[in-house]
Amino acid sequence: MKKLKKIFVLTVLFIIQINHSFNIYVKAATEAPSETELFAKSAVLLDGDSGRVLYNKDGNTPMPMASTTKIMTLIVVLENAKLSDTVTVSKNAARQPKVHLGMRENQQFKLEDLCYSLMLESHNDSAVALAEHVGGSVEKFAAMMNEKARDIGCTNTYYITPNGLDATVKVGGKEKSHSTTATELAKIMRYCIMISPCKEKFLEITRTPSHSFSDISGKGSYSCNNHNAFLQMMTGALSGKTGFTGKAGYCYVGALEREGKTFIVALLACGWPNNKTYKWKDTKKLMEYGIENYDYREVFETKEDFEAIQIPGSCMVEQGKENLWKEGKIKPYMKKDSMKLLLHSEEQMKITYNIRQNLKPPIKENDIIGTAEYWLNNEKIKVYNIYSGNEIAVIDFKLCVKQIINEILL
User: Which H or E run includes 314?
Assistant: First the structure.
């Protein structure tokens, strides 16, 4: 009897444990990571297709970005120079601190080779050499970077250096730091891999495992290896860039594509030595959350039951072959379309229909008479037009004469 009782108790405890483990798994699969579950002080998960933020942990606070800066450096270089250009090393570039290629003043390199040095090994001297070649100076190149950030829609990003070393300057009497936000860092990566006319070359460079080259004279020999470990961590990894300074801590921005879905993760201040692996844990956690919980859904709905709108005043409407002189009515309609969005299983689209008030003739068929607004989480996603399904003319002297003539001729 005691043995049976012991077996019963153990069985109950086993079932409880299984149930507890299942609940933990379900929570992990369906709920966003809590802020305490992530090491990064600032973290964002972005939908690469729409640019919508899917997860945000203090993602709008400006922070130092370290060498994640170099994704902007590379895209500005690619968009404003030729890969075959010859880059001559200045004294300023040659004296940049480690991590560096070890270039010498007046040494010359092919621009494309320095792009690999920039992204695979994160060489600070290559960043400055490229910046000076494209912009004429580091300061002018930083201005190009800031202009590109504004074009992308990043208003809380400020570049001072092309390599991401901590820096501050005074602008208009105010001190500004080299910084960005996790949200804007993710948006910049989205631009680099999905929008820029140089996106294919950006992806090619940042995904290359290794690259060997020599300087123009053929005397120097160099080899670069890709240090973005995320490329081997998850199926579908597209691109990424690590970064570290004493002020910024470990930083990372990376992208992944799987099952037709593209996710971008940006992390700032994700630990300090000796916590180098924190960024990989946070990146995998956010990517897995996105993959498990977000799917594309068709959200376009065309309203079929619009009520006919009474148009006040004297007007003429056509009914069959007869012209009727009376108050007019418009039957609104929406043109069929398609809009697929990456949505969480619990997200629902809200649609509001707005018809213009005090519509008056003349109204032509297919005139825009209102809008349908699509809202998601209090954010307006898209606006569609609502059209007039028929024509309504004003009864005026000209129309009366025309109608009389038509009646006489008939």
Answer: strand 309-319
Neighbours of 373 (CB within 10 A): 14
Whole-model pTM?
0.84
Per-residue model confidence as pLDDT tens digits over 1-38: 555 555 554 454 444 454 544 444 444 456 789 888 99
Count Cβ atoms below 10 Å from residue 25 Cβ, excluding itself: 10
pLDDT in tens, 134-148: 999 999 999 999 999
More confident residue, 64 or 318: 64
pLDDT digits (tens, 9 = 90+) for 255-292: 999 999 999 999 999 999 999 999 999 999 999 999 99
Residue limits of CATH 2.60.410 in the chain: 309-409
* CA atoms of 61 and 184, how far apart (whole Å): 10
Any bridge partners for residue 158, and if so which? 179
Question: Strand 86-88 and strand 108-110: pairing?
Answer: antiparallel
The whole-angstrom distance between residue 181's C-alpha and the CA centroid of its chain comes to 13
> Measured between alpha carbons, how far is 275 from 3 in angstroms, rounded to an integer?
49
CATH 3.40.710.10 in the chain is located at 39-294
> In angstroms, rounded to a whole number, what is the distance separating the alpha carbons of residues 247 and 265?
21
**Domain covering 39-294 in this structure, CATH number:** 3.40.710.10
CATH of domain 309-409: 2.60.410
